[in-house]
Amino acid sequence: xxxxxxxxxxxxxxxxxxxxxxxxxxxxxxxxxxxxxxxxxxxxxxxxxxxxxxxxxxxxxxxxxxxxxxxxxxxxxxxxxxxxxxxxxxxxxxxxxxxxxxxxxxxxxxxxxxxxxxxxxxxxxxxxxxxxxxxxxxxxxxxxxxxxxxxxxxxxxxxxxxxxxxxxxxxxxxxxxxxxxxxxxxxxxxxxxxxxxxxxxxxxxxxxxxxxxxxxxxxxxxxxxxxxxxxxxxxxxxxxxxxxxxxxxxxxxxxxxxxxxxxxxxxxxxxxxxxxxxxxxxxxxxxxxxxxxxxxx
Amino acid sequence: xxxxxxxxxxxxxxxxxxxxxxxxxxxxxxxxxxxxxxxxxxxxxxxxxxxxxxxxxxxxxxxxxxxxxxxxxxxxxxxxxxxxxxxxxxxxxxxxxxxxxxxxxxxxxxxxxxxxxxxxxxxxxxxxxxxxxxxxxxxxxxxxxxxxxxxxxxxxxxxxxxxxxxxxxxxxxxxxxxxxxxxxxxxxxxxxxxxxxxxxxxxxxxxxxxxxxxxxxxxxxxxxxxxxxxxxxxxxxxxxxxxxxxxxxxxxxxxxxxxxxxxxxxxxxxxxxxxxxxxxxxxxxxxxxxxxxxxxxxxxxxxxxxxxxxxxxxx
Lengths: 297, 315
Hints:
The structure holds two protein chains of two kinds. Chain A contains eleven helices and two strands. By secondary structure, chain A is an all-alpha fold. Helices cover 73% and strands 1% of the residues of chain B. In chain B, helix 2 (9-30) packs across helix 10, helix 2 (9-30) runs antiparallel to helix 11 (223-239) and helix 10 (205-218) crosses helix 11. The chains are: A mainly alpha, B mainly alpha. At the A-B interface, helix 3, helix 4, helix 9 and helix 11 of A face helix 5, helix 10 and helix 12 of B.
């Protein structure tokens, strides 16, 4: 039972992180490999504040700070990197490749800074005052932080899904992802939409950073690229651009990983993501829960 | 061999190894295949050759074994992957690199776990390094000539067009993927025999950044770009010592700047410079005044491999 709780909490963190990746890929055709670095750096900022400066910051504020840092980083990424590339690229494929490469270049910057400061060692985020309460439900122990992670993720996911389905800007975004040119003719500003999506994805990555740092107790400067692998799996299982799919994909992955780490020594957990990616891509490239079956090359 | 050379011989060796790795990146990017698998094959080559060395296989022989083996493995891998396009392929190959690190960490005595393998005999001379690098450069440069070169270039610019011109798109993608794998594996072998050690950290995210920097900053249009890129990545921290261990930041910024503003890379910049000077000289000799401003505006809009793809398109 303890493992089930773990899997649900882990799945929530994966989902929070993967949703940003899925949205930027599905709507903007950007595979943002800097997403992992944003996630890591948001948590890293909280680490600096709580451990280096020794500030007493309660958890809700840490989450807000991390979300702000993540949003600022992804916004900068959009304005300084993706926008100029989109403006200058001749074809969609050209833009995709350029943005993919540039996002790796961008990821190198925060990763290097974190490596330098931590001297390549793991870091942790501790909120002060620590008020962890444990609840017993039958034979299951669950902390208030774990409940917070799961509830936060579910609320955010449902909120995002409703926003995409119902609101005007959500509809505009879907239109844009379907056909950017026609969307533009309908008066949708691609630049503004792109900034919006990246800010959203930065916020979720930041929250995921703090949550995972608290839940796992330690992150490394390279955690971002490890988590990218998990997010790829979640996104691919769920189908690129699908919010619900990402949620389900994240839980499937977390369940699989928990199962593997419970039955083996635990160092092979990442192989689960890779296996899932390969199997899903080869059998059903559009994902298990994809909404539209449009072949975007 | 003077003192300066012997003090910097490691840098020369690294340049040769990196040039091969840069070629591995460059061939796939040039043909518009989004693959980061080069780094994974670098790791495979490094570990396989280290294990071969344990059994007394000589350096040259293991180079050949890994080159051929990687090519076959790369080709086999490309058969299912050829259906994947664009970002999906980028993602899978990135995941491939990540998973190999997991394998290396769990490989027991074959990989030495997180510590890696060390004490592998030095089995390649600097001269041999340069000969191997030169052979690879020659091989790749031949692929940029004649009809095969043009059909590869057109893959990146317009796949539909390539198909309609009778280019076997899938077969060529598979071939490019296999070649890239072979070059990546070879770079790994050279690395092992030159530095006598390999660890999982040796082919992680940092190497992807370095490899991309070389291929992209140098210029993905031509093999010459890979050489320029390797020279930049290896010698830049040496010349500008103040960047120190922050060099990855500089690489990152360079990659972004090049991708966003000068897709042709340093090579493209040089080519443009040469053309501008040639135009200037022509103007001078014919008594004209200045280089027209329009020309500056027109040239960068041409896709990076400025000469080859155009030939391919109009052919």
